[in-house]
Amino acid sequence: MDIDHVWLFCMRVHIRKGHRSMYGKASAAIMVGPNRPLQVETIDLDDPGFGEVVVRLRASGVCHSDISFLEGKWPAPLPYILGHEGAGTIEAVGPGVSSRRVGENVVLTFVPGCGRCRFCLEGRINLCTEAAWCLDEGTLPDGTTRYRWQRDTVYFLGQVGSFSTHAVVPSSVALKVPDELDPIEGCLLGCGVMTGVAAVTGLANVRPGDSVAIFGCGGVGLSAIQGARLVGADPIIAVDLLPEKRKMAKQLGATHVVDARAVDPIEAIRDLTQGGADFTFEASGNPLVAEQSVLSARTGGTTVLIGQPAVGKTMQVNVFDVTQFEHYILGTHIGGATPAIVIPRLARLALRGLIDLKSLVTHRLPLSDVNEAIAIAKSGGAGRVVLEL
Length: 389
Ligand SMILES: NC(=O)c1ccc[n+]([C@@H]2O[C@H](COP(=O)([O-])OP(=O)(O)OC[C@H]3O[C@@H](n4cnc5c(N)ncnc54)[C@H](O)[C@@H]3O)[C@@H](O)[C@H]2O)c1
Ligand SMILES: [Zn+2]
Ligand SMILES: [Zn+2]
Known about the structure:
CATH class of the largest domain: Alpha Beta
Strand content: 25-35%
Largest sheet: 7 strands, mixed
Helix content: 25-40%
Bound molecules: nicotinamide-adenine-dinucleotide, zinc ion
Number of strands: 19
CATH topology of the largest domain: Quinone Oxidoreductase, Chain A, domain 1
Oligomer: single chain
């Protein structure tokens, strides 16, 4: 029993509110409004319900999507706990969950899959309607959360809400990974790494020798580069505005880098690939870059849009060219991955040194410095900023 267990055990008291009993307390960074600093506050945790677990979170990555919620580009119910790249240990289980799960090293997923909706039944778990509903509502599938602050319900991002020391979530959200996987690195599998690698190796199914261009070298783009390296793509062209990001791209597998401020990336990619890449990936979240990624693909080529701008933003495409030159333009949510399969698989690859998670973690900060963490992530200069919880 470590110090957290002792503390939480002492905090286990019953409260006079409905039939809920209180599990304990957590420290969480709470969003109180768009573009306002996050507030690190103590919140009350209810006991886990049927089929739920309590996770003692150890680390959370900061994905650009957290920033889009914070900037009000995507709607969020308030007060709200951001964070969807979480990793830690199962500390307690609710009724209906085997006590053998206590102590498991886990990575959380915001797309557990309900197993009942049309998309889950089709095997397209990443599009699960229940997971999408929870993401919109900021709640568990039953429409509630296990968190309260100043007696108000606290909502949380995609059944994960990892800017917190604890999460009370459905057992299916907490995916077991090998004990040796350090949560500081493992947390990145929850979104950025899974999305980038799966977009290349799964959704696009890039084959050895295919030419690939990746726009934007953040946590997602650098992971797409690693996916391209894993499957033997060549060349692997990385585009970014920042020299430090282009350097990281080279370290992680890019064969060529393009400075989109110094040259026209479309021309540079066409030159390097004799007319356009077989596959282009957009991972910056800028619709103008999405247009560039479309124009950089060859006749018959494929463009995968991963980056997500504010809700409602549009891009222009030349319809004649797209039809005449049979250009595939695909959008993707988490690279089309089934997290319960892909996350443990990527964990094994990381432990075997085939995916480099360590280099992606360029900044580690405590939860108390969450606003600084957000500012660093927003600057675009980080591989990934990780909060130590
Ligand atoms: N579709 C999905 O399932 C999914 C999953 C995760 C993240 N996302 C989205 O993917 C995008 C990337 O996420 P991230 O966490 O890696 O972001 P990030 O901010 O860490 O990285 C973005 C990168 O793009 C670069 N960039 C900015 N403008 C550019 C330009 N004009 N040309 C080339 N590069 C440019 C930045 O320098 C930075 O390196 C975001 O929009 C995020 O919301 C989508
Ligand atoms: Zn994300
Ligand atoms: Zn479903």
